[in-house]
Amino acid sequence: MFVAYLIEILYQYTNSCLFYLANVLRDDFKAQPKDTQAVLGNITILECGPPKGQPEPIVFWKKDGDVLNMDNSRRIRILDNGNLMINEVKQSDVGKYQCFAQNLAGERESRVAELTVHELPRFIIEPKDVTVLAGQNVRFDCEVDSIENVRLTWKKEQQEVMPGASHVLFNHRTSLNITKVTEHDEGLYTCIAQNIAGEISSKASLTVHTLPSFVKVPTDQKIGLNGIATFSCLAKGNPPPSVFWAKEGSQVLIFAGNNHGHFHVLADGTLRIQGAQKEDTGFFICSALSVVGSTSVRAFLQVTSINDLPPPIIELGPTNQTLAMHSDALLHCQARGTPAPMIKWFKNGNLLDMRSEVRLKVINQGTLSIKDLQFSDSGLYTCAASSESGETTWSASLTVDKSSDDVHLHAAPDPSRLLKPPHRPQITKITNTSVTLTWEYQPSVDLIGFTVECFSSALQTGWIIVAHRILNNTATITNLRPDTPYIFMIRAENSQGFSVPSEVSEVVQTMGEKSILAEHELAEARLRLNAQVIILKELVPETSTSIKVTWEVIASEEWMEGLYVRFRDQSGGSQTYNLLTILKDQLQQGWCYVTNLRKFTKYDFFLVPFYKSVDGQPSNSMAVQTLHDVPSAPPENIHVEILNETSAYVRWSPPPPQHFNGNLLGYKIKVTSSNDSKLLLQETLNASTTSMIIHNLTFGSSYVTRIVAYTGAGEGPYSHGILLSVHPDTAVKTYINEKNREYALLILAFFVICAILCGFLIPVYLRRKNGVDKKLDSIDGKQTLWIDHGWQSIEKSKQLGVSEHDYAEVDQKNFSTFGNPHKSMPTLPNYQVSTPTPYATTSILKNAEYTISESSNCIETTSSFLTKTSLSDHSERTDIFQPAMYIEQCNRYTNPCNSYKNSACCYDDSSICSQSTSNETDYRSLDSHNVLVSQYPRCKKFKEENSSRLSGFYSQEPEMSRSNTNSSTGTLPAQNRLSDDADYETTSLLYIPTNTRLKEKNSYEDISVIHKNFTEHIGTQHFVSPTA
C-alpha cells in the first residue's frame, strides 16, 4: 500500500515537472508602457512587448485596475505586437494603464503607465491679410481659446519677430504692431500658439503699396524738322505702375509697348518721335498710374525749320567813331546763331575786298581792323551776320579827321565797360495785339535804359527794335499781329553803348480772334494740376451695363474745369481708353454713371482733371465688373434628325461667347405641337450638354423644337422654331450615320490596312510553305526525321490527362547526341503503376528479333503487327487497324496546345493533329487513350502521301545484329505486356531513342510499345518512321 502511495506521488510529481517543463513564461517584458501625453482627437499608442513563453502568451490590458473590454469597441484595440492603440482620443481615456501577458505557465504584468489627454488651442481671432500704403501703421490681432497655458509668438517668413515688435495684451491674445511700414516689411506673418499638446498657426500677408515715382524724367528738347526726339520716362512703385504718354491738348494715350503714328513708346516707357513735324511742337506728358495713385511729368518739344529759326544775333556791333589820319581803327562785330553765322563787312553798301587792301583785316571772328587810316576810309561801315536762317546787320560811321585837334576825336568803347546783359524776359500777359514782358537786371548808376528787340518767324522781318530806352524792367509791346508767334530779347544801354543781349524768351503766341486764354494761364494751370487733386473712391456696378463712379476732390477746384472719366474693357486686351467728360457743375456732385457698357465685363477706370487744354495728374486706377444678365443670343446651329418612327436627335451650339452675359448654366428645350402649339416636352439641361434624343414621338405628326440658353439672371431669347416631322420618308437613322461617320471611316481604314497586309503576307506564307514541302520531298532514304526539342509549350497543364501522376518533359539538352555511336545509352527506368490500366488498342511484337541500327536509331521488327484488338473491358471500341499499314496510331503529345508533334504519322513541326472538338471532356478523354490516325485527316493525309515511299521498306526482312556493342537490351515491365493469344502478321518498325536503354541483352518475346504511362514518361520521344 505504501509503495502504491509513493508511486502515486512520484507520478504526480513527474507530471508536474513535465507540465512546467512544457509551459514556460519569462519574467521580463521586451517593452514596457510609458507615461504618454495624447492630443485630443488624435491617435496614441501605448507600447507593450510581452515576454516570451511557451505556449505564446495572451496579452490584455487594464485601465485603472479594470480589464479593458474591447469586444464592442472599434476605437480601442490591441495590435498584434501587444501595443494598445487608441483612435480619436477622448478625455475619458485619461487613466493608468497596465499590460498583462498570460499563458499556462502563469501571468506577468508590466509597469503602470499614465495617459494624460491635452487639447490643442483654438483660434478665436486670426490675423487677416492687410494692404497698406508705405508710411502707414499696421496691426495684426491673434487670440486663442485654451484651458491651458499658451505661448503666442510671431514669425515673418519663417524668422521669429524680434521681441518688442509684438505687444501681448493678456495671456491668450497678442497683437503685432508695425509703425510706418516700408517695402521691407512686406511679407507673410504667422501667429503661432503653443501649449503642451502642440502648436497651431495662422498666417496673414502684409502688402505694402508705394506710390509711383520716376527713376528717369524727360527734359525739354529742341530739334529740327524731320528730326528724332527721345524722352526718357522710367517709373517704379508697388504694384508696378503703368506708364503712358499724351500730348497736351490730345486725348490719345500711348502706353508702353504701343505706337501711334510716328510716336513710339518703348517697353521701358521711353517716348521716341521719329520724323518730327511742326505740329509736334508742344508739351508731352508722361504719367505713371497704379491702384495706389499716379504721378506725372511733362517736357516741351520744339520742332524748328530754317524759316522758323531767328536770324543771327549780333551781340556786339560797331559804334560811330571819329579818328585821326594815320591812326588805327577797330570796328567790333560778334554774332551767334543756329547755324553759326558768317560775318561780312560792307562800306557804303559795297562789300569790302580784303585781298586787294592789305590795310584791312578781320580779326577775333568778326572785328574789322583798319591800319594807317586815310581820309578815303571815311564812310558807313556795315557788319552783316548771315546764315541759312537769315541775316542781321549793324552799321556805324567812321570819320577820318585831317586836323590835328584831338577835341573832336571819338574812338570805340572798351567792351569791358559795357553793362551786363539782363536776365531772360518772362511773359506775364498776352492779348491779341500786345505782350507784357518783365525781366531782372543788376542796378547801375550809368544805365540809360533798356532796348527790346523782337522777331517773328511769320513776318520774316528779322530782329527789330520794338522799345527803346525803357527805364524800368517791365515793358508792354503793342501793335503786334494777332495769332502770331514772337520772341524777345533785352539789351541794357549806358554811355559806352549797348550790352550783349539777354537770352531769347520762349515763343509766345498772341491770341487770335477766337482765343480766350493766355499762355500764362496755361502755365499756371500746369503748375496747379501737376499734383494729385482727385481720388477715385469707389466703383459700384449698378446694372449689367452701368457703373457708378465716385470720386473725391482733395485740392482747390479753381484750376479744374472738369474731369475725364477714362475706362477700357479688359477682355479685349486693348490699351484704348474710352472717354467721358464731366464738367465743373457735375464735378462738385462727386459721382456719375457710366452707361452703355458690355454685360458681365471687367473694366479699368481712372480719372484725369483738366483746365482748358491742360490735363492734370491722373487719379488712382480701379477695376470693376458689370453684373451678369440673360444671354442676348439664342443657341446656334440647331439640327434635328429623325432616328426612327418614335424618336429624333437634336443637337446645337452655344451662343457666341460675347452674348453669354454671365456664366452659362444650361439650356432649356421645348417641343410643341405644330398644330395647336401645345407644350409636349420641356427639358432642362446643363451647360455641357448640347444634344439630346427626343422619345415618344407619334408617327405621322409634326412638332416644333425651340432651345434657349440661360444664366443666373434668367433665360435669353429662344431660337427660331425647327420643324420636326415624323413621316415614312424621314424615318431613317440619319443620326447614327452622322454620329458614327468618323468611326466608319476608321473601320474602313482598318479593313483596308488588313487587306494590304494579307495581300503581302499570304504570298510570303505560300512561298515558305512550298519551300518546306520541297525540303521534305528532297530528303533521301538515308536520312532520319529528327525530333525538335526546341519547341516548348508556354505552360504545362495537368488537367489534360487522367493519370494521377505528373511528369516533366525532358529537353533535348538532357539527351545524348543521336549521332554518337560510342556513347552509351541511358537506362530506361522501370516505370511501375499500382493498377494496370486496360487499353483499347495495343500493339504487340511477338517473338520479335530486332536490330538497333546505328544510323537510324530505330528497331526493325520481324514479327507481325496486331490485326486484332484486345479490348479488355473497353468493348465499345471497334477494330480500326488495317492489315499491312504503317503504324495506325498517333500518340498524342500531351501539352496545353493539343498539338500532335513527333508522332509516327505526323512528324512535321507545323502539323497539328486536331479534331473539331469544343468539349474539354473530349480532349481529356483523348488524352487518356491513343489518338487514331483515321480520326485526324491531316495525319491521314501525311500518312498517305508517304505510304508509297515507305512501301518498299515494309517488304524487307531486316537481319538481326546482336553483336552491336553500342546497344543495350532488356525486358519491358510485365505490366506493359498484353496477352499472347493473338496472331500478328504485319511487319512494322519501332523507333527507340538512343538515350533509352533496354534492360536485357536477350531477345524479346513480346513488347508492348504503346503504353500510356510509358509514353508520358519519355515525353516528346514518340514513335516516328524512318524515311524509305
What does the average pLDDT come to? 75
SS-based structural class? mainly beta
Major sheet details: 6 strands, mixed
Q: Extract low-pLDDT stretches.
A: 166-170, 731-739, 774-936, 938-1028
Radius of gyration from the CA trace? 60 Å
**What is the domain tally?**
9
Number of helices: 8
Strand content: 35-45%
- Cα separation of the termini: 98 Å
Principal-axis shape equals elongated
* Residues in helices, as a percent range: 10-25%
The count of DSSP E runs of length 2 or more, i.e. the number of strands, is 71
What would you say this structure looks like, in words?
Its main location: membrane. Residues 421-513, 532-629, 634-729 form the Fibronectin type-III domain. One of its GO terms (cellular component) is membrane. Residues 950-977 are annotated as: Disordered. The chain crosses the membrane at residues 743-766. The protein is mainly β and 1028 residues long. The chain has nine domains: 24-118, Immunoglobulin-like; 122-208, Immunoglobulin-like (Sandwich), CATH 2.60.40; 217-303, Immunoglobulin-like (Sandwich), CATH 2.60.40.10; 313-412, Sandwich (Immunoglobulin-like); 426-503, Immunoglobulins (Immunoglobulin-like); 531-625, Immunoglobulin-like; 636-739, Immunoglobulin-like, CATH 2.60.40; 748-775; and more. Helix content is 11%, strand content 36%. It has eight helices and 71 strands. Strands 2, 5, 6, 9, 10 and 11 form a six-stranded mixed beta sheet that branches. Strands 13, 15, 16, 19, 20 and 23 form a six-stranded mixed beta sheet that branches. A hairpin with a 6-residue loop joins strand 24 and strand 25 (254-255). The chain is elongated and about 195 Å long. The two termini are 98 Å apart. Residues 166-170, 731-739, 774-936 and 938-1028 have low confidence and may be disordered.
